[in-house]
Structure formats: structure tokens, C-alpha cells
Write a structure and sequence with these properties.
about 120 residues, mainly alpha, Arc Repressor Mutant, subunit A, two-stranded parallel sheet, two-stranded antiparallel ribbon, 6 helices, about 5% strand, globular, disordered N terminus, DNA-binding
DNA sequence: ACCATGACGTTTC
DNA sequence: CGAAACGCCATGG
């Protein structure tokens, strides 16, 4: 992949990574919210795909804080071990049951609102 | 340029 | 209420 900045333009993926890094500890957001913040509300799939490539990203991308709109840990399988994502979130004070984040709205962090 | 992929989201059945 | 079908769009081959 092109990866990083070949010219001056920043890739869609890189934008996603930056937003994900801005998610406060103990907070979570959805792919759609990130996509919306990036101006591509209908590109939620791209956000998820960007996370798939997040493993090539330099620092640690807290992809565990990014879930689908229902607060479901859909991408936990991509953390190497199936329980890694849940454990990371629980370590931040988030309760999860059956891959579902409890009090999802309470932990939800909307970049287009909070970050502004 | 065309086709396949994808950690989503909405609608439909 | 759950599963499937569609839509959506950036990226790679």
C-alpha cells in the first residue's frame, strides 16, 4: 500500500488513525461516527478497513475503542486473540458482556461533538 | 477502467 | 427479533 505520506496529501487511513488516537481512555466510538467526522459518513466500512491496516501504523492505535454502532466488538478477532479487545476495554473501566458494551451510550465519544 | 474486498449501516423480509 | 440483501466507497490487484 502507499502507506504514510508520499506527497503532501494524507491518506484516508491516516486520518482515521489520528482520530482513533484522540479517543479518551474509557471512551469508545463507532466506525460511522469517525467516518462522519472525516466528512465521509458513508464510508464507515473504510474506517473498519483502516483499522485492519492499523497494525502497520507506528504507534499503538487503540482500535479496541472503536466498535460498531451498537457497541458490539465486531473486530475483536483482529487483535490476535479473541479476548484481547474485551480485556483492554474492561481494563479501561468499560463493562462488556457477550461482546456487547454495557452502557454504550454512556461511554460513547462522538468526535464530531466532543472533538469538534 | 474493472473487479474484489472489507473490524459498517440501513432497510427489508 | 434475526438474517439477509443492498448501499456505500477507498484501496489493491
Amino acid at each position: 500500500m502507499k502507506n504514510q505520506i508520499r506527497h503532501k496529501e494524507i491518506s484516508f487511513f491516516d486520518k482515521v488513525y489520528q482520530v482513533v488516537r484522540l479517543i479518551p481512555k474509557g471512551k469508545v466510538t463507532s466506525y460511522g461516527a469517525i467516518a462522519k467526522y472525516l466528512g465521509a459518513a458513508r464510508s464507515a466500512r473504510m474506517v473498519g478497513w483502516a483499522m485492519n491496516n492499523s497494525h502497520v501504523c507506528k504507534p499503538h492505535v487503540p482500535a479496541q475503542r472503536v466498535v460498531n454502532r451498537m457497541g458490539l466488538l465486531t473486530g475483536k478477532q483482529h487483535f490476535g486473540t479473541p479476548n484481547m479487545m474485551q480485556k483492554l476495554l474492561e481494563n479501561e473501566g468499560i463493562k462488556i458482556k457477550d461482546n456487547q458494551i454495557q452502557n454504550f451510550e454512556k461511554h460513547f465519544w462522538d468526535p464530531s461533538k466532543e472533538l469538534l
